[in-house]
Amino acid sequence: MYLSQIQIQNFRQFGASGLLVEFQPGVVALAGPNDSGKTAIVDAIRYVLTTKDQEYISIQPEDFHVSRGGGVSKDITLTCRFSGLSTVDRSTFLEYLTPAEDGELVFYLQWKCVKKTSSSSRRWNEITLKSGREGQGPAIDSATKQLLACAYLRPLRDAEREMSSGRNSRLSQVLNKFPDISSGATLNADNLPGDIEAVESLSLAGLSGYIRHLVNRHDGVKAATTSINNDYLSKLSLVGDGLTAEINFVSGPDDITRLKQILERLELNLLDGASQSSYGRYGLGSNNLLYMACELLLIAKEREGLPLLLIEEPEAHLHPQRQLQLMSFLESRVTGQDEQPPVQVIISTHSPVLASKVKVENVVLVNDGQAFSLAQDRTMLSKSDYGFLARFLDATKSNLFFAQGVLVVEGDAEKLLLPTIARLIGRDLTEFGVSIVNVGSTGLRRYTRIFQRKLNVVPEGAPEQTAIRIPIASIGDRDIMPNRAPEILNYVKDLNDEKWSSSRRKWRIEDDQNFLSDPSRPNKGEYEMGRISIIEKLTADDGQHVRTFYADHWTFEYDLARAGLAKQVFVAAKLAQADDGIHEALDSAVELVRVKAASIAAFELLQAKHPDKEILSIYVYREFVVGKASKAIAAQYMAQLLEDEFTDQSEKLNEVLPDYLKAALTYVTTAHNG
């Protein structure tokens, strides 16, 4: 049995129209920026199910939704749905079950809180817990409610304190689930153990009694006890009411009570790997792992309870490698490996490292008070897309789950240079919460489809489906050369070169567009666009808040040059070619200035020889093809060149930027509310 959805109405930022959050079995991640609603979703689950640590949850005035007009709701309704019930689950919760639309028996649990006011103006909150999708079924009894309690790890938790001794400590609850914890013989005060084997055969309660016997024989303890009784209590006692004290470990009337007291006095510590001694060298991160291990152990031992663990910010105090190890461990537990029952783990996270390790279909994207399951049949992702993303959605790319806007680019040059351009024209990507994701030469559409919904698929009980209101700008090359480019780039010798008509030609020129629909075209093959244009193909998958911005002419570097930054692109390419020599020089700063000056002079000669903007830009781009300049290194140099020339000159830079880049940066830094 697992929690498959929760419907939330009038709770905190979620109003009367409601929010339906869908969950999958296994590890589920609620991912999104701060204040998006992740904690509210976790707390809603806690309110319905309560938690195994028996924490008392008090409804606060701020839990009731406040509308934009200032009106405060009078009630809160939270409805959980449990699916995948086993035969044992169906037997245990039989009277509460409801047939779903597909015929599956599911368990609905509705928690409702209503504000009440008596005739004397006394106010209170009336809470009910009933079964049925609309709360029309039988009320949930206390025994059933106890079975549905989940384990919960709060954010920024003090794991060391949670694992320390104390009344009803978590460690005592964990230990009490082991059947052998109460095994062993009781202590016979008239026949004390005579050897170590007899001592080891005692129960924990028996051991505490035996230790008490030995301690009370210690001279210091006997002296202290005698002094307390004779020097103080005897003089403070009334006649006929003598007070007598005894130093003790536990004082319960029976073995069951004494066992509980013993377990509450125990604490769990990590040992040094080499010396196997405990001396406090471990920090919050390691103790957090210990705490999570104990919670999972407790769930595993409670075979009849709900196997659900809620963790807010599991990345707290963990470095990236530990986060990866944690996710691998959680995945092994949720699948029921090592003869352990399967567990569902729901985490809220801000960590791209953790998000990258959760299955894409198990991510719930929380943004602006909305929750979007990325499960199959909820997004425009195909089955092959999910497989692709499972392999290539790494920690760097997973930051898109937390962004207020996303730029998807096809190369290192765009990723390195666009943040500088955006900042110089007043659209700082960091300030706007925009992530830039480099997907390389493949998979561009696979990433943008994450943010496109199947709006015609509405889950049972869900409000009307809406698009994800995050602007996604996909930036791509048009990949069509100017007609003269193949000759200048040495792809062909001249216009009579047979490569022009080769079916294996892997490049296109502007004039090719005149022959796209010509069936006699010798290189139609994979390069023929059929009846649709290049532009239509590039934008074919656009929709909702995903838009593609393609190069006005050819490639990123060429279009920058042709728009008005030819000198900067050329100089950056030359600096990239000389990069090793610059850094290996005795005085790299002097060498940098020398190479830069020589590059500017070379550009001026090139510009004088080829005044035509198109031809000049081809020769600039030639430095990357023939000159083998690294586009990534050139982008780094160009970022500095732009900084030097255009800081506080945003209008001037805007005039020489390609239109498609300006449009993309404007789009992705504009909030979408429709």
From TrEMBL:
**InterPro entries, A to Z:** AAA_GajA/Old/RecF-like, Bact_Antivir_Def_Nuclease, P-loop_NTPase, TOPRIM_OLD
> Where does the record place the OLD protein-like TOPRIM domain?
401-453
Say yes or no: keyword Hydrolase present: yes
Q: Which Gene3D superfamilies match?
A: P-loop containing nucleotide triphosphate hydrolases
GO molecular function annotations of the record = endonuclease activity
Nuclease: is it a keyword of this entry?
Answer: yes
Q: Which UniProt keywords apply?
A: Endonuclease, Hydrolase, Nuclease
Endonuclease GajA/Old nuclease/RecF-like AAA domain sequence ranges: 1-100, 278-354
Determine the domain of life of the protein's source. Answer: Bacteria
Which protein is depicted? ATP-dependent endonuclease
Q: Which organism is it from?
A: Arthrobacter psychrolactophilus
